[in-house]
Amino acid sequence: MRLGFIGLGTMGRPMAFHLVGGGHSLAFFVRRPEAGLPFTSAGATACSSPAAVAERSEVVFTMVTGTADVEQIVLGKDGVIQGARPGSLVIDMSTIDPTATRALATTLGAQEIDMLDAPVSGGPQGAQAATLTIMVGGPTRALDLAKPLLHLLGPTIIHLGNNGAGQTAKACHQLALLVTAQGVAEALALAGRSGLDLERVRQVMLGGVASSRVLELFGAKMVSRDFKAGIESRLYHKDLGIALDLAHDRGLALPAAAVTMQHVNALVGKGRERDDLSVLITLLEEMSARVDPSQT
């Protein structure tokens, strides 16, 4: 199949390679030519614009940072819509606003172009290993076409409903992840303040009901003080903002999310937005008065 890919970053790069490895031809667009060199070496075709990618493709994947980026790539000047043919398919695997996703799908649909929103969970490791969980919104006919391609990226593909449903599910996922990360940071900070060995406490929690992938992955980085980003905190800030906006629109209170957002905002304010989310623990440590409990 003739595929297009726009967004060859930390997540998109290995995903695109898996598609090429599946025997498909690939056209791509990158702003920095050097980022595309591994793909041209593998036989892929560099294009001058998203429209040019769409002209060469039956299915176009996008995997970029935010809502405005997707809107520009798909609907902007020289965007995908300018080159896509009726009957083609756009699969957006970014994490963006569900309302904007529905608007994109409506605009594309008026040109007889289908769209799936298909955000993922699994992070860079999952992208590398092709073990991503993919949450999908959009028409069943489009998903039927896309499934063999998506299975090259991960084994778990869940259809949530119409366009926007995949992005809504991703917002819920990120909400749970971030609130859990806040809880892990607080638990380990308390253990440290109490003089306990943090790794032993983490192992206790991993063996109990408190166990989670967040504790396993982010907790390990908190203990080791390894704050080099897998996914930068600024992206989680964006994702939690989407969840809070969605809850506001639905008239739902999210008190734990609101507190977590204050702390993620503080990380951004301190210039740590490019660090890993595990850096949350340092914020708690900085916020806490350095008082000897025995003297209180």
Please characterize this protein's 3D structure.
Helix 2 links the parallel strand 2 and strand 3. This protein has two domains: 161 residues, 3-Layer(aba) Sandwich (Rossmann fold); 123 residues, N-(1-d-carboxylethyl)-l-norvaline Dehydrogenase, domain 2, CATH 1.10.1040. Helix content is 52%, strand content 12%. Strands 3-2-1-4-5-6 form a six-stranded parallel sheet, with helices on both faces. A three-stranded mixed sheet has the order 7-8-9. It contains 14 helices and nine strands. Helix 9 crosses helix 12 and helix 9 crosses helix 14. With 296 residues, the chain is α/β, with parallel strands linked by helices. It is elongated. The chain starts with a strand and ends in a 9-residue tail after the last helix.
Concise synopsis of the structure shown:
With 296 residues, this protein is of the alpha/beta class.
